[in-house]
Amino acid sequence: MAFAIFGSYAYYYTDTKIEYILYAVPTLTAFSRIYKNKHYLSDTIAGAIIGLSSVYFGKYFSKKYLSRFKLETSINKNYSSFNLKYNF
Known about the structure:
Layout (H helix, E strand, L loop, with lengths): L1 H11 L5 H18 L5 H24 L4 E7 L4 E7 L2
Antiparallel strand pairs: 1-2
Helix pairs in contact: 1-2, 1-3, 2-3
């Protein structure tokens, strides 16, 4: 969970030092779980792979499929409307 959350934030901060800090937090969390005998090393590596792959899969999915959706809003004094369109 830590790698998925902080990895998604780090995905957007690619040009700054914040990216390294955001990747360091789940790494230190994983080491603390190993140190306290709550997880094995293989558990934390598997969690990192699953968490980070979910970030990249989510980004791929949103670029490929969610870009087809278009939300149009119209707000007037008397009414408001929201239209959701999907392009095939």
